[in-house]
């Protein structure tokens, strides 16, 4: 599922993928001859969390609500960073193995500082305000839904400070 949103100031791709995420598609999308800065975050499934051996994760979401949320995040970035911004937001859905890509966020801007700040703002907002649920699968056969902080209603900066250091 893919939605490309073009407003008067920005261009963004928001995507939910049941297959593999492609960071090269993000890089290609946010590239522009006038952009000297591109920042990218690629989140992968790790093999250890809270002292437990992880064998994989499953992500679930209500696609239309998640896509709308990603588009809202892009619009908020547009309001802050202005017309010279391209964003790419993609999140995986379904079962993922260790090392698989869970999320790809990229930001292209004329300067590196804006690219880094926009990329960080987007990933924090995706983690703290998007309707994405994660279930971790463990070596002992147990599976647990992460508490997370989806839809908690906090602003991304507040949520980031309140949840600093916790592993979701």
UniProtKB/TrEMBL annotation:
Pfam families with a match to the protein in the record: MoaE (PF02391)
Record's catalysed reaction(s): 2 [molybdopterin-synthase sulfur-carrier protein]-C-terminal-Gly-aminoethanethioate + cyclic pyranopterin phosphate + H2O = molybdopterin + 2 [molybdopterin-synthase sulfur-carrier protein]-C-terminal Gly-Gly + 2 H(+)
Alphabetical UniProt keywords: Molybdenum cofactor biosynthesis
Major enzyme class: transferase
Position of the signal peptide: none
EC number: 2.8.1.12
Keyword Methyltransferase: no
GO MF term (any one): molybdopterin synthase activity
Gene3D superfamilies noted in UniProt: Molybdopterin biosynthesis MoaE subunit (3.90.1170.40)
GO biological process, one term: Mo-molybdopterin cofactor biosynthetic process
Pathway stated in the Swiss-Prot or TrEMBL entry: Cofactor biosynthesis; molybdopterin biosynthesis
Annotated family: Belongs to the MoaE family.
Subunit description: Heterotetramer of 2 MoaD subunits and 2 MoaE subunits. Also stable as homodimer. The enzyme changes between these two forms during catalysis.
Protein name, per record: Molybdopterin synthase catalytic subunit
Origin species: Thermomonas brevis
């Amino acid at each position: 599922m893919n939605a490309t949103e073009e407003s008067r100031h920005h261009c963004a791709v928001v995507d939910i993928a049941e297959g593999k995420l492609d960071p090269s598609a993000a890089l290609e999308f946010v590239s522009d001859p006038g952009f000297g800065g591109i920042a990218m975050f690629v989140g992968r499934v790790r093999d250890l969390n809270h002292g437990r051996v992880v064998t994989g994760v499953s992500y679930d979401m209500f696609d239309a609500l998640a896509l709308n949320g990603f588009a809202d995040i892009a619009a908020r970035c547009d309001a802050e960073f202005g017309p010279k911004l391209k964003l790419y937001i993609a999140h995986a859905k379904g079962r993922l193995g260790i090392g698989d890509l869970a999320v790809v966020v990229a930001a292209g801007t004329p300067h590196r500082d804006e690219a880094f700040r926009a990329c960080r703002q987007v990933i924090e907002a995706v983690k703290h305000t998007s309707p994405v649920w994660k279930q971790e699968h463990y070596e002992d056969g147990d599976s647990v839904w992460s508490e997370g902080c989806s839809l908690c209603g906090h602003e991304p900066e507040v949520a980031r400070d309140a949840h600093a250091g916790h592993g979701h």
